[in-house]
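P.,

For your records, the input lines for the assembly:
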Amino acid sequence: MDTDDHDISLQVNGTTYRRRVESRLLLSDFLRHELGLAGTHVGCEHGVCGACTILFDGEPVRACLMFAVQANQHRISTIEGLAAKDGQYHPLQQAMHDYHGLQCGYCTPGILMTMSAFLDENPSPNEDEVREALSGNLCRCTGYQNIVDAVLAAAKTMRG
Amino acid sequence: MSTRTLGEPVKRNEDRRLLTGQALFIDDVELPGMLHAALLRSQVAHGRILKIDVSRALQRPGVIAAYVAGDLGDYWQHGPVLVPPPPIPGIVFNARTQVPLAKDKVRHVGEPLAIVIAESRYIAEDALDDIDVEIEQLPAVVDLEQGLRAESALVHDDVGSNISAHVRQTKGHYAAAAAKADHILKRRFRYEHGISSPIETRGVVAQWDGRAGQMTIWDTTQAPVFVRNGLAGVLGLNERQVRVIAPFVGGGFGPKIMMFYPEEVLLPWISMQLNRPVKWIEDRLEHFFATTHERGQIHDAEIALTSDGRILGIRDVFLHDGGAYDPYGLTVPINSQCTLLGPYVVPNYDSTFTQVFTNLPIVTPYRGAGRQHGVFVMERLLDFAAHELNIDPAEIRRRNLIPPDAFPYKNEIIYQDFAPLEYDSGNYEPVLDMALEAIGYETFKDEQAAARLAGRHLGLGIACYVEGTGIGPYEGAKVQVQSNGKVSVATGIGTQGQGHFTVFAQIAADQLGVAVSDVNVVTGDTDQFYWGAGTFASRGAVVAGNAVNEASKVVRKKALKLASDLFECSEDDLVIENGKVSITGIPEKFVSLGDLARQANPMRGAVQPGTEPGLESTQYFGPKMGATANGVHAMIIEMDPQTYELKILRYVVVHDCGTVINPMILAGQIHGGVAQGIGNAFYEKLVFDDQGQLLNASLADYLLPTALEVPRMELSHTVTKSPLNPLGIKGAGEAGAIPAGPLFAQAIEDALDLKARGVELTEIPLSPSRLFELTRDLR
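Structure tokens returned:
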């Protein structure tokens, strides 16, 4: 059976990649297994758990619900690009560490990407707004409380 | 000793890799030439296999191999009985364990029929559609009571019934106690626990290196040492030829300790056949069938009391859904049987259970591991007794608490660790008092009345529980000072987010006078540490933690001895801190731990006979029995009386798990447990039809609580040390999840005045729609 392949070019965390991909290749599989950016985790492959959330032209999307070909000529950010080049944490990463907002850490990349977009949009959220924004990401370890506190603390840091 | 970190909220060593996307999880393992597996699974719950033909699949480009049961030859074997039945007189246990690929018969939806190996996962899944399968469907055993009727279909024909196990345990004489009782109350309870559903599913990667004669298996297991030993045995290899690595594991909560899952058996063998690495990653749909569940019990329970609400005895007869196979023995129902007794004086107890084979996925422990079921029965019995005897619910609990001078308290019946159930230590009443104070129990009735006038329905629940934790047999740890002065700790348990990289580091750091961040902990790699049992039953911190402590003490002693030789002084005159050993009062007279480690491994010269090289020690710790933690949860809810939408306004946890190693990590364990308890009580239900089909096998339909359902929790602790281990620790991993069921039932009854209206909530999970059904007649 012939496969339906396409040449794509996209930018991930500021680096341009050119690859030939099968049309049915999920964006999550492409990032993880073709580009080696395995920090984007896959939890359900049906768009519910949020673990695979990335930023697509700055907007949070589920990488398991997109095909790699759809990313052609687009700009993607993943967890690997969140900290500064010198390794300094993004305020959200620092707050998650400080407030014990992660346990097994599997859902964490998706939560960080979702919340970084959320704080860009709403720099001064209250707890209810954080919980609403977080409700599309499932975490089975933490009970969310420390994540909520971390996001509120990060928002404060980012406001300066 | 430098500043103690034990008891401090030290931030986690493991966070950086996890926060930056650099931690290695199973699906991140990429190997040259790696192949990918997909499994064809039964779509019927019970049936006779007439045909499985993979020939068309093998013709698909990119497919390398496909196997059915017959292709495995002698390698096809039933799995081991992972936990043998405890030594209880009169016990019946019919061991029927799972197989790698079904032969002759399928016994639950999702049971593997064939495995396809291809160049990519996509091709392997395509090829599953090429397989020709014919199965003659048989009636499915789904309902526990129907399954025990003579006319029922049989899950295992050769057993002659669907009885997997039958156990009776007694303490005192219930019948004699009941004869003297003022009040006897009897109810039927149904409690279902769901699936653990970690956000990372399971996975296995196997790499056979034919030249080296070495097998490496990456596995999302909670028990790597047992997986290594078991697989070495079946593969015909020496244990030293097999290395099992449990990398970062994205949540476990129990089911990841089951063994062997069919995929764990199949992939290493296939890797040897093909001499190429093979990967299998479970998808979420598979997870609902291929990973074990916990599920349900039906209890017919009776409590005998005095008129002032003192328990004289309890009789309980219950059915436990064991699923299609029983490799995990009786751990779950034994936990239910034992934990039902709770923190109360129950002088007479007569408990009988029957574990029933059903055509549903296998049942093994999931966080709480049957304790929830027992706690629900006891707490509900006390609620109904309080109502009937007109005693306050908190007061009836207080009257029955085991007094502090009664420890160690013997409950006599056999627990999951095969020892007679004995509570090591406890002081229960202050925990109840703190919870009542924190939730505002005294003033709640007024608040409730005021709210009701405003049309708001508030309800309060309070529930007590104990948790047997920290069971044996043992764990070990190797502690080693490196030449760079940093400390390496290796243990055999696996880790799934519990903070082991930090709490074990704290224990070693305190003994060796180094920074916690300078202690590197390795868990779950059988080449780094050879022995161990695994992470389960809230035992990691208790058992492995104490092993780390013992090994660290020996290394400390070695360091002091070497330094005392060097300085020609007494060990008593030395202080070990900041990575150095120095003479007390003369800080400039020091030697670094790294230098001592180098000197302990000389390249030339003679050493004293019997000298061990290096600054290192391996020690083991095994408690004589489990340590018993306890707690009280209290909750205030608001419920919409029309829609039954529920909002948790307050959630209080007061808990005693002995010595606290790291309060930040402990709080995280409690938070997560409570969230799972809330899911169990009100959101998560596995819905099967009468053919054994799971009707809600997606995360869109099986509802895990989100940040909107889990409230802010208010935590406090008391500390009653365990006398069973030198650190005084009790386990804490499961506590949060245990009492949520009775809390919800009680609070909902309270909010909707259900008791006065003649409705009792005797089942979990509840949900708005289930509450609507239960109260339909009132409307």
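Two observations worth noting. DSSP finds 19 helices and 30 strands in chain B. The mean pLDDT of chain B is 95.

Regards
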